[in-house]
Amino acid sequence: MMTTSLGGGIYTVEKPQKVFGSFVKVGAICKRHWKKAAIATPIVGFLLNLGYNRYQEELMVVEACKRAKKFGQQRLRSAFEKQKKVTLFVNPSANKQKSVNQIERSLLPMMHLAGIDVRVVKLENEGEAKELVSASDDSEAIAVAGGDGTVTEVLTGMMHSDVKVQRQPLLIVPVGHRHNSLFKLINHKVFTPGQTIRNIIAAGDSFLSSSTKPVNVMKVIPISPQNDDTTAKTYKSVYSTVGLSFGPYRDVLDQTNLNKYWYFGPLKKLFITAKASVGYRNQKIALSVKWTEVCEGCRLCKEEQIKAAKEQMNSRKRSLWGGTTLNKEMLVEANKVLKFEKVENRKCAVVRSRILTEVDHVVFRPFKDGIEISIATDSTTADFFTTSLRRFRDSTAGYMVPTKGRVVTINCKEVWVEPALDGSGNTVNFPSWFSLDNENFEAVPFYAKFCRDQVNVYKT
Questions:
Q1: DSSP H helical segments within 84-220, as ranges?
Q2: 110 in Cβ contact with 171 (< 8 Å)
Q3: Strand partners for 9
Q4: Over the chain, what is the mean pLDDT?
Q5: Is residue 26 within 8 Å of residue 20, measured between CB atoms?
Q6: 3-class SS shares of the chain: helix, strand, coil, % to 5
Q7: Cα 444 to Cα 29, 415, 427, distances in angstroms
Q8: CB within 8 A of 83, min separation 6: which ones?
Q9: Selection from 435, 378, 366 nearest residue 148 by Cα
């Protein structure tokens, strides 16, 4: 408000506010150039939203670094305690090649402020992690930044390494798009799809809390068909934390289909489901399954472990005063195994078999006490269409059996899967591909074995 005097009189003039005037000018400009405004409005909105999200991420990183700094300022328990070393395996192509930048923005500052020595290994070739993991025997923990495929490679490399590497805890840093391993190994409430920085910070906090839990895994060994000399060639084993699945339901959810039909835009999932439903009856599979029942422990299923424990006990060296040079923990573990030498279970070695036909979906996954085999059959075409379309919304649907139709569950400690043969000895409807921890593999006969508490994983 402004007061002035003109011609002996006093007048009061109201001065408009600058903010309101700016809005009026912007509105007038948009009215005159409405075509340009229509194009510029969504672009400006997108940039503002992008800047706001980046600002919120920086605030989360700052708060996480403050927590890590408090952890780094803690005194060591003794003068002989060494600095913690962590080997971090990063998949640079994860999250549209943004993973390295996101790790450098969030996780690495947290680790450095916490006083942790981080050795970053960038994986450039597929399968490279299996060979490089064995070189991290001087670390106290192994971290992997990537999707389910990278986690499977690092885990397989750990299991193929020596005992020292196998005992190192595993930290999963989610920077990929598919993370069924997180839902399996870590509290799924922590993982938020689309918010990578928040997920990385949650993984860093779980490492600083030093809280781990043992996880069961499934050892899968592909076996080639027998040769003329009736010998079968075996390949290197792969360790799975999530499971193995195949069938028509798996084929619909295959990620390569989404990339193939990208030109359908938001309707690509509907198109893929409709196309698969047309030939659904001809896509059903058949296979032969052999398995042994779950055993709590006996001399038959613990034969290899008992033999190793006996060799360990017999090879121990006595010192001058009659003591043993073996570690107490190793002695305790050996005695735990040797107690199964007197336990006998005749059903442990009994192999059961079953021929499965007209199968919609099969899932093999490590469970509490063994491998859980879930077999879904008798689904109609309408059920297949509606269920498949709904399963696209759930990131864990690939390893969940649909509720429509009939579902049979088998619990076992080991299983053999082979093609079903007809009367002429030909293969009948054996699948072409199966998914193991969200990675596509060519379907071949395989042998799977349950491994209890095989790896320790950081949890929240």
A1: 94-97, 99-105, 107-113, 128-132, 148-159, 163-166, 180-185, 196-209
A2: no
A3: 6
A4: 79
A5: no
A6: 40, 25, 30
A7: 67, 14, 12
A8: 115, 116, 117
A9: 435
Q: Which long-range contacts (CB under 8 A, 24 or more apart) does 123-126 make?
A: 123/89, 123/90, 123/91, 123/92, 123/150, 123/153, 124/92, 126/153
Residues 185, 191, 196: CA angle, nearest 5 degrees: 125
- 310-319 long-range contacts (CB < 8 A, ≥24 apart) are 310/338, 313/338
**Beta bridge partners of residue 213, listed in sequence order:** 457
Q: What pLDDT score was predicted for residue 397? A: 73
How many CB atoms lie under 10 A from the CB of residue 295? 19
Domain boundaries in the chain? 18-70, 82-215, 243-293+350-436, 303-344
**pLDDT computed for residue 447 by the predictor:** 92
pLDDT digits (tens, 9 = 90+) for 322-346: 555 556 666 777 777 777 777 766 6
What are the start-end ranges of the H helices in 299-353? Answer: 303-314, 328-338
Coil, strand or helix: which one is 448?
strand
Give me 388's structure tokens.
Answer: 């498949």
CA distances from 161 to 155, 156, 157, 220, 232 (A): 10, 9, 6, 17, 25
What is the C-alpha separation between 42 and 341, in angstroms, rounded? Answer: 72
Cα gap 394→427, rounded to integer Å: 33
State whether CATH 3.40.50.10330 applies to domain 82-215: yes
- Can you tell me the distance from the alpha carbon of 87 to that of 90, in angstroms, rounded to the nearest whole number? 10
Q: What is the pLDDT of residues 38-94, one digit of tens each?
A: 788 888 888 888 888 888 888 989 998 999 898 888 876 666 667 788 999 998 888
Q: What is the dihedral of CA 26, 27, 28, 33, to 10 degrees?
A: 90
Q: Given this model, what pLDDT does residue 63 score?
A: 92
Q: Dump the DSSP string for 18-75.
A: HHHHHHHHHHHHHHHTHHHHHHHHHHHHHHHHHHHHHHHHHHHHHHHHHHHHHHHTSP
pLDDT at 320 over 50: no
User: How many CA atoms does the CB half-sphere of 275 hold within 13 Å?
Assistant: 12
